Amino acid sequence: MFGTVRRFAASQVLRAAAPRSVSARSIPQLQKWQSPLSLSSVVATRSLHSSFPRLSAVSAEAVEDVLESSRPAAPTGEFAQLATDNIIDGSLIKNIIQPDRMGLKTMTEVQFLTLNEIVKGDDILAQAKTGTGKTLAFLLPTLQNILNDPSVDPKTFARRARTGPSEIRALIISPTRELAEQIAVEARKLAFGTGLIVQTAVGGTQKRAGLAKIQREGCHLLIGTPGRLKDILSDPWTGVSAPKLNTLILDEADRLLDQGFSAEIEEIQALLPNPAEVDRQTLMFSATVPREVMQMVRKTLKRDFKHVNTVREDEVPTHERIPQKLVYLRGLENGLPAVLELAQKYQERAESENLRPFKAIVYFNSTAETKISAEAFSSLANSREFRMSPLGNVKMIEINSRLTQQARTRSADNFRRAREAILFSSDVTARGMDFPDVTHVIQVGVPREYETYIHRLGRTGRAGKEGEGWIFIHKGEHETYRKRLGRLPIKGDSPTNPTLLTAGADMSQPQSPDTPEGQIITQIQEALASVPADLKVSSYMGQLGTATSSFSYKGEAIQALNQLSSIGYGMATPPYLSPRLVQQMGLRGVTGVSVGDRPRESFSRGGDRDGFSRGGDRGFSRGGDRGFSRGGRGGRGGSRGESRGDFLFGDRNRGDREGFSRGGDRGDRGGFSRGGNRGSFRPSGRERYSDPSFKEGGSFDF
Fold first, then answer.
1. Would you place residue 340 in the very low, low, confident or very high pLDDT band (cuts 50, 70, 90)?
2. Is domain 77-309 classified as CATH 3.40.50.300?
């Protein structure tokens, strides 16, 4: 059964049948007859703010009679039919259906309901969950419209001639670099052989190369993040403009506005041709339609826009459909052994029960935890014992906001293609990223927000395939867990018959090599022994904020972290905290806190890894590679637009920006923003990063 298509304009036919409003859900018999050739059959005469009461049986029958004559004899949802009916160019369809390209045959609901409307040039507000094919829903008709544009010469495609930046016909705005790159990958697959040129505009280390590519090769479809697009379009020296733009697309509109990009979007629109002079189609795709999205709808879309809704009221949400399990850890040091045990047990079952291979995303609340975990498991994967185990073919992949954009894109692509893999991730992949065949989402520690848990969990159980959700927490986090996630259908582990023996093992005691849990713990301890000492210090520091805010008592959090450093990391003493940091975090007088200057030999001269300068507590290294500064001697200079470190208060996760930049743009650069942009130093308010380093009186994220 299909969702809702609503036209916000008058309709004499439906006024006669239903003078107030029509909901497609109330007349399901209409939906089975809809085809890409006639998708405007359900019309509403009231605005989105109005409710859409169900039609009476008489009204529904009247609409049914009116539309009977327009029904096709054999409605279809297959892509091949679009080429047969001359709706979509055969080259585009060939790229979709060929097994060695995209290998798709049938349209999803959101694709089916929006395609014809977009090709006709209507403004669309499409509401659909992630993982339902939204990207192809707007890419396919948009590329077709570019091919249909009489001002675009197809001959230049065949010659592969330089089209020039002024040839930009469509612009897609995405909230994150990862999503922009993901859309670009799909767009290039779809445009193969047509001559259409797809380019990206994102920040990070590739921003100059991306601009040079646009200038050198030209561009028909430009995909980017808000900050970078604004920079390029507003700077006359780039030579990039879009005087002939006819399509503007806002992907993940709710997330764009939730992350505060409204101002940038309005600035970008001001840099585009006046819609009164150059007609422009606007498409907004969103998982939800909150008030902020409706405000943008009024400012951006035409009055007769259509609302396509594929999210049914009676549909079971992902977080209620996927089995979820809670496991308590005896100590923070038990987390990685528990991950390994879970992977081993599932893989053994997969071989005997013909299940899908283990493919998991392990989420952490700080970048430093992500890095040390990936480092340890990569070391473990190189051992002969591991290669001979059922997990021997599992790839270990890391992705977080501290990697270069090129490295992040490579990690995402590798995990997407992998059959068996573990992705150690911060929240840069928590929303919008589409990874096929993910069997497990494992969250270590209580997420900062309810929404964060939901979005992470949504990376599995996609495309109708089964998945599992697991969350590992310390017993000291129970109260916070109960407050944030207590209403979710998460099944707690049995105290008498625990699922994972390593989760409750006393790792302070020697482990027996004769037991499976003893072997796993020994493997993890040996792998962590090979991790550099400064990365262990960074991990400790990175967890200070989340631990002291999620544990019931700060003293208990410090005790758990100290135990992690000694038992898990094998450190002789916990890292020293400067008196100033202790003061800021409210840790003065807390038992177990090591106060004082760090030993000289553990300071890095250039802020490498932890970013502390040789000057100790006199100052953090100014923009060191991992930390932040106020004038310590050893760090690198403050970054004006690159990721260097975080320092902020707040309790709201906002994406993947990080660092100290002097006015870095919102979407890409991150940094110590003097103008209130992303990555700003804030004593209060909402956190704007996926990997915050200082929150709720918290710590530095190294």
1. very high
2. yes
Q: HSE, CB side, 13 Å, CA atoms: give it for residue 19.
A: 0
- The reply to whether 77-309 and 318-529 are identical in fold is yes
d(CA 28, CA 297): 27
Largest CA distance in the chain: 85
- Residue 326, helix vs strand vs coil: strand
Q: What is the mean pLDDT of residues 624-650?
A: 39
Find the helix or strand (DSSP H, E) in which 452 lies. helix 450-457
- Whole-number Å distance between alpha carbons of 656 and 408: 11
What DSSP string runs through 508-523?
Answer: TSPPPTTSHHHHHHHH
SS3 5: strand
Q: Using an 8 Å Cβ cutoff, are 554 and 587 in contact?
A: yes
Report which of residues 38 and 499 the model is more confident about. 499
The 10s digit of each residue's pLDDT in 196-225 is: 999 999 877 677 888 989 998 889 999 999
Q: How far is CA 221 from the centre of its chain?
A: 22
Distance CA 536, CA 568 (A): 10
Class of CATH domain 318-529: alpha beta
Neighbouring CB atoms inside 10 A of 311's CB total: 17
Report the candidate in 319, 368, 436, 426 with the shortest Cα–Cα distance to residue 702.
368
pLDDT tens per residue, range 152-181: 875 555 444 455 667 899 999 998 888 898
pLDDT at position 145 over 80:
yes
Check whether 298 has a pLDDT greater than 90. Answer: no
Q: Counting Cβ atoms within 10 Å, is residue 362 exposed (0-12), middle (13-18) or buried (19+)?
A: buried
505 Cβ contact partners less than 8 Å away, ≥ 6 residues apart: 330, 334, 337, 511, 517, 518, 521
CA 209 centroid distance within chain: 24
Q: How many CB atoms lie within 10 A of CB 346?
A: 21
Instruction: Give the rounded distance of the alpha carbon of 433 from its chain centre.
Output: 5
Instruction: List the one residue out of 105, 92, 69, 74 whose CA is nearest residue 195.
Output: 92
**Of 508, 515, 514, 518, which Cα lies nearest the Cα of 568?**
508
The contacts of residue 511 (CB under 8 Å, 6+ apart) are 505, 517, 518, 519, 521, 522
Instruction: Give the domain ranges of the chain.
Output: 4-75, 77-309, 318-529
Length of the chain: 702
Residue type, 171: L
Instruction: Please provide the distance, in angstroms rounded to a whole number, between the alpha carbons at the two ends of the chain.
Output: 49
pLDDT at 183 exceeding the cut of 80: yes
Segment (H or E) for 589 = none
516-538 burial: b if 16+ Cβ within 10 Å, else e: ebbbbbebbbebbeebeebbbbb
Amino acid in the structure at residue 315? E
